[in-house]
Amino acid sequence: MDRKNSTCLSTYIESNTLWEAVFKKSYRVIAVKILFPDRITEISTRVEILEDNRTVSNCENHPRITDIRRNSQLFICPHGVIGNTIRIMPVRTQTSSETEHFEICEVYVFIQWNQACLRPDLPYMATGVKIINPPKFVYECKEDYELVGDNTVYCQEDGTWTQTSFKCQRRTDCGKLPEVANGVIISNSTTINSTAWLKCNEGFRPLSDHLTYCLPTGMWTSLSFSCELIKCDQSPVIPHGSAELPNGFTYGSKMHITCDQGYMAVEPEFRECHKNGSWGNLNICTPTDDEKKSYFTPGATCSHYTTGQRRGRAQKVNSSLQARTLDS
């Protein structure tokens, strides 16, 4: 504006109507005062503070103050807002018309005198985020790089940033491997291209991945390690027999097999839960000699049929077999 209250600027009120005051650098804005012509009494106004075209805050609208010469409207920015652009926009109401003008005569911006800090220089392979309240800048490293040193600088009253030794360097290490319950991760190194593997304690086995590799990105391919307790079938099926599990069904537990009547065990009757979660061979019950003898009844008659070749009918042939026991 021209610092003359007698001259005003106007424009039609449309959906994107606004006035902007852009500063060469950022300041902490604490209030904005707008002077309107005497005839402007109905238009509501909104004021925004922007930093690099990004809205930082809206300043609160205080009741319009009217003096003898001009109507004025005061906007207070809570706690002060750092920005480099003041945006002034009319707020349309139901009584507004498309031909209505938005006219202002003067804009006063009240700032806190200590200077705002501009965006700091970025080290090699670094990026970052500027935080407004409190004013600080947080550095970050790009992919495949890791940060070294303090990655945060703070804005000082003279408009300069605090010093830091921050830098980004290419990753050479994937970092410490995690601790695993009931197991341990073994690795000779954690540098790029290293390999690590999971070794579970006795009685446990890997639940999922058990190998991981250190990639050039400085990341392990997997860190989802866990060891689960080895368990065997708690209800094993014993052909012609039954099982007792006196001390459970986990790794190292014993199982006692009892064969049904007429059957006997041809292998030791005790089985152990192995590290692969198996009881081993359970088909150890075979018929006793008495059971084998009962397969045949002395003096039994065997009947069978043959097919007649001439008339195509079945002929019954009876024959008597002298059944003998297996031990005769």
Report the top-level CATH class of the largest domain: Mainly Beta
Question: How many domains, as an integer?
Answer: 4
Distance between the termini: 129 Å
> How does the helix and strand content classify structurally?
mainly beta
CATH A-level architecture of the largest domain: Sandwich
Q: What name is given to the CATH topology of the largest domain? A: Jelly Rolls
Radius of gyration: 45 Å
Strand-residue proportion: 35-45%
- Assign an overall shape: elongated
User: Which consecutive residue ranges, at least 5 long each, have pLDDT under 50?
Assistant: 299-328
The helical percent reads under 10%
Q: Give me the count of strands.
A: 26
Name the average pLDDT: 79
Order of helices and strands: EEEEEEEEEEEEEEEEEEEEEEEEHEE
Report the total helices: 1
Biggest β-sheet strands, sense, barrel = 7 strands, antiparallel
CATH superfamily of the largest domain: Galactose-binding domain-like
Can you summarize this structure?
This is Sushi, von Willebrand factor type A, EGF and pentraxin domain-containing protein 1. With 328 residues, this protein is mainly β. The protein is 2% helix and 45% strand.
Annotate the secondary structure layout.
Layout: E1 9-12, E2 19-36, E3 44-51, E4 54-58, E5 60-61, E6 65-66, E7 71-91, E8 101-104, E9 106-112, E10 126-131, E11 136-141, E12 145-148, E13 152-154, E14 167-170, E15 183-187, E16 195-200, E17 204-206, E18 211-213, E19 227-229, E20 241-244, E21 254-259, E22 263-265, E23 270-272, E24 285-287, H1 289-293, E25 301-307, E26 314-320
Antiparallel strand pairs: 1-8, 2-7, 2-9, 3-4, 3-7, 5-7, 6-7, 10-11, 11-13, 12-14, 15-16, 16-18, 17-19, 20-21, 21-23, 22-24, 25-26
InterPro entries: SEZ6_CSMD_C4BPB_Regulators, Sushi/SCR/CCP_sf, Sushi_SCR_CCP_dom
Protein name: Sushi, von Willebrand factor type A, EGF and pentraxin domain-containing protein 1
Disulfide bonds: 141-168, 200-227
